[in-house]
Amino acid sequence: MVIELLTSHSSVRKYKDIPLSREEVQNLVRAGQHAASSHFVQAYSVIYVTDQGKREQLAELASNKRQFLTAGAVLIFCADYCRLASAAELHGEEIDYSYAENMLVGAIDVALFAQNVAIAAESKGYGICYIGGIRNAPTKISELLGLPDGVAPMFAMSIGVPDEANEVKPRLPVEAILHENSYDTEKYKQLLPDYDKTMHDYYLNRGSNQKDTAWSEQMTDFLAEPRRTHMKEFLAKQGFKFN
Amino acid sequence: MVIELLTSHSSVRKYKDIPLSREEVQNLVRAGQHAASSHFVQAYSVIYVTDQGKREQLAELASNKRQFLTAGAVLIFCADYCRLASAAELHGEEIDYSYAENMLVGAIDVALFAQNVAIAAESKGYGICYIGGIRNAPTKISELLGLPDGVAPMFAMSIGVPDEANEVKPRLPVEAILHENSYDTEKYKQLLPDYDKTMHDYYLNRGSNQKDTAWSEQMTDFLAEPRRTHMKEFLAKQGFKFN
């Protein structure tokens, strides 16, 4: 049953006008907190955005009006070493989280946590969508939400009662993902053309936003230009210097 | 029911001598693939380590004999832009994934995927444990598993039939994690001493490995020294230069 829930996931971007209660959001976040955390650092925070003005500014900054304005709840997921710095202060110590390792731990910790929140929400009949678009304007969004040093927004999530049902997108064949004992480049090179055919059919025939493209083509276009080159400087400003 | 499954998670480090079948591992990985992926890049791979010699070497390199030698399955989760580079090659293009943004996307993508694998496994009655210890020796482990440029191991996971049941560790109070509209440092500063008391009781009284400590103390000790300072150089070698 749980596996059926996991494999039926598709992003929901259109919601009915039914807000989640604060208590529901708390319960989802509590479920999220039970994900594993590296050495139990719990290096994450969530900003639950209920203020209409802030939701409007987020919608502008992340170029995503539909979700930020209509979702039943808007959550901003952050990697967080500020709370760990406060914990160390209790013992008169300073911590140095400026290393690449710390950024990785924060990004992985918050993602494990968020995926639990997503699954908890979907198990209650809600739809969700991850929104990486907040990394288009991380400095302004951090100012808007008062994020201190040691905190960096990684992604947002919209949650709500679905007003659409998207088809489940075909994933890469498991053989292209799962290697046994050694990484095998040749195997997936052989599998990509067939997967492209599958995705071409999917993109042409899906319920909305049809397009004549395939996965490898989409990826090539998407990654043709460097992505979000401001991130290094933004993260350094927050204390994540990749030392 | 799903939320009960999520909130009952505790890491399992001791397994019965019952291997998972290859088919079971494939099914868990398929369930993992249904997690969301940033722009559908699917920027992850898993190395399923069945070779006894390689499991022994991993056990040494990650200083974790018990899990690498006794788990029913050992999976190494990697951020992967190599497959995306292959996809672009089909169109005669090269991609540049040397930016901090690309590393973040890879780390987040593989973590969302892994958390689905974890939940799928736990829903089948297996226990799991994330193992960050592979980042102690990423260069040697990458050689052992033949990881090409664009691929970096992020963490491992042991999966198996539990031979122990650990208590669920008390998480930070939700109020210390969840902020409304603005990040609130003061709120959690007030909550940390009580949480320390809770964790002190937990560490003193749990079933095994009792210790006289609290969360803030543990964190302060853990982060007193820079962590895994070799990661920057290793990641740069794999092509993740944090540009």
UniProtKB/TrEMBL annotation, chains A, B:
Domain Nitroreductase: 8-160
Keyword Flavoprotein found: yes
The organism's place on the tree of life at top rank: Bacteria
InterPro entries in the cross-refs: Flavin_OxRdtase_Frp, Nitroreductase, Nitroreductase-like
Pfam family name, one: Nitroreductase
GO function terms (MF aspect): oxidoreductase activity
Name the record gives this protein: Oxygen-insensitive NADPH nitroreductase
